[in-house]
# Entry
Amino acid sequence: MHKAIRTLTEKLPLDFRVLCRQFLLRVIDLESLSIQADVVGFLGQFAGVLIIISFVFVLRLVYPILFMDDAHTLAFLREITWPMEQLLITTTFLLTGLIAVASWDATFPDRRDIMVLAPLPIKSRTILIAKVSASATVLGLAVLALNLPTCLVFSALFGSLHGGGLGVARYFFAYCFTMIAASGFVYFTVLTVQGMTTLLFPRRIFLRLSAILQLAAFGLFISVYFLEPSTPTTAAFTRGDNAWFVECSPPYWLLAVMNQLNGTLPPELNWLAMRAWIGLGVSITGAALSLLLCYVGTMKRTVEEPDLVPGAGGLHWTPRLGSSLRTALVLFSVRSLTRSRQHRVTFAFFFSIVLAIALSTLRGELPLGRHIPLSMDFLVPTFVMMGFGAFGLRSVVALPISLTANWVLRTTQVCPPEKYIAASRLTMFLLAILPVWLIAAALAIPLRPASLVAGHLLVLGLFGSVLVELCLLGFYKVPFTCSYLPGKLNIHVVFWGMFVVYMTVVVSIAEYENHALRDPHEFSVLVVLLAMVGAMLWTLNRHRTKHAVLYFEELPEVQITTLGLISIPSPRTRE
# Structure
């Protein structure tokens, strides 16, 4: 099989193969990577996370069946079919949307592509096909990793309900086609929006507008995923209060297509499947036209028009945030985060999760009236939001804004390292802890009594300070200036460690706080403990930074590997 694929690949034109390989590796910005970065290993770790998520969905379905008899198993499968299909389609929508927004510039030509490839004897259509192929490869691998285990298990279980082996084969085809159509619909829609924006506006305005579109897309995809209501039955689909949402929601259109291909869609919902076919055709047509027009009409304009908008005149005031060094580094971090597309999009991903959790919490508060009691339903989400804000910003500041410019900070380091780390600490508080704390305070307005709410906000602030000190452990660098080393993070380990360990800690703290808020003595103990932990971590970080050296290049640990070509004789042999 491997030889057949390799033989088929070698038959493709050489220029196409070289371009496709380079565009495939540029899924991650190569300018932010270490010189010894293992991009393939990092992508493999990301695929491993998706496969494990797929197994979680499988376990969610299979585990209850282990304790049921045959009659209850059949009833359970019929009842859970539509909810599980809806969950998998919306998850595929979310994954595709995040990849499409994260690789916003991966399909259309940029200035570097044109300056390097235009003088070469390479046709524009070759560049176009290579970029589309690279993007399709990344998207296809991600969708395959997410859906492969669920496709096999769900086809065997749900397909057997409708005709034995023939039903399994039919469900397998319906599942595969639906997931491909769902990912294609989202990706082609994003390409259409981006392409039309590129054609309608000058490049410098497009670059500014695309930043807003990226942030809006992140918020839209994640908010819809968390806030979308479930309609597991035909009656729920046709109910009056759900009709408007079903008509406007593409995941429900694809759910109708999946059941239409499987032969289980009620006739009264055929119009919903027809809407999916129309939407898929429109998205494919729009993406194709956008790509062709952009490659024909905007490549010259990309080179000729400036990327930067001239600065506005007038008085520019900058706040003082302590010493001049601290003020400069904090403002450098803020401007790097707001001006760099890569950092802005990465942080938007984490902050969109924060906003989605906040909206989910707010949705639970609104139907209950204006004044509701403080409970675990509010405590746990706020701690989770604080974790996503802190750890999200910590992952963003590890990416450089421009490796070719960090020599400025290397040659001007006139202060001890603890001054730079203090600036990083203030940056974490201003950009991560304070915004999440303000969102939690806004969500707490309907809660009563006010004294308990104030106590929780105090605990939440102390908890955020502890997270900041944890994020600064071993962080001996200036934010946005050190190269990134994919693979060193072990994203699959960090992801599940965050999910399991952090959630366990958060739930434990929330349960204790829920009782401590009503007991002044226990509340005082909780506040003192959090303050002591934060003070100890602050002291440890300050002590370690006094002897630290700032670094700007991530390098893997040196490993000596022997080939085993020389055999060492044993003492008895030497005698």
Q: What stands out?
A: The mean pLDDT is 80. The radius of gyration is 27 Å.
